[in-house]
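Lecture notes, unit on protein representations.

Consider one protein chain, 403 amino acids long.
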Amino acid sequence: MAATPLTASVIVVGGGIIGLSTAMALMQSGHEDVVLIEAEGCLAAHQTGNNSGVIHSGLYYKPGSAKARLCADGRELLYEFCAAEQVAHERCGKVVVAVRAEEIPALEELYRRGQANGLTGVARLDSAGIRAREPHVQGIAGLWVPQTGIVDYRGVCAAMARRIVSMGGKICKGTVFHRCRQLAHGLSVTTSMGQIKSNYLVNCAGLQSDRVARRCGVDPQIRIIPFRGEYYDLVPDARGLIRNLVYPVPDAQFPFLGVHFTRMALGGIEAGPNAVLAFRRYGYRFFDVSMRDMWETMAWPGFLRMACRYWPMGLSEIYRSLSKSAFHQALARLVPSIREDQIVRSGSGVRAQAIDRQGRLLDDFYIVKARSMIHVLNAPSPAATASISIGRHIAGLVEKSAC
């Protein structure tokens, strides 16, 4: 006798923090049979589990943008969640440092954005003020941002998963999404464990989100291009060089924050990441290559336009990826006393960066609605910080579509 197909009111594709927060919000809003599928054998296997572990303040984001709105609410919700679930975290604050005079206008713009985004207690720092916060950091001006924190995001995801299961939701790890087709009423989703009948689908597949959309019959209008961020750890006798978090002034042309120092919630000091094009969507090492992934990247018209625009930066990032000395020099701009032998290669993460046909790197969240579906196609930083707000926002979109 054939097995009865699994049914769900909503199926969520992707077991990172956005998929989990969405499933949790759906359960909290009254959906009793939410099913989350994750291709890997564990949750938070990719972007969520390999990031810097920072709770962002909302300093960087254009006032009025989805990033700014969702980060402000999500930050406080995440702090509350971590306290309730006893997940390792700390609201420790950070220093943003300008080392050259030409960076001062960008630093002032960050201060203006922080004020517009509702941050309180952000303070301008001179050289002495920087040293008072971070004695080994050198700069000519800076900002102190008290809302920034650190957290164990894998611990957050484990806690979200426990809540989902406790409310009756189902999490299916090691389950690969294949395709989705429309039925007269609802959807039929084909996975590696069989068919799932569902009223709604939410695509939170991160590095695979554009492919999932296409397999659902939706043209996402973007291509996911993987960028690897590589980290170094400070050796134990160098950890006293950093008290909390130290960031450079970011380049406004790019949606990356530059190499920085982060005290980790579970111990240690991490330095990085850089941002180098990966040759595989799960390309955590320089020589990880997928011909299929490379072809999809190179064949996308937007990639060629982006490459022509930003190739000098791309080459410098590749050089810094291959050269420990170059990476050390970037760190020494902020902490001149750090020695090259005080940093050791650590892990890496791969960021799912959406690029449109014109070669623009999408900076804000990008969510596409279709019949009985929602596709989260760009969820860059601060998505982890804003995850609970994003999940509630998506759950609200599902409710509106069902009305």
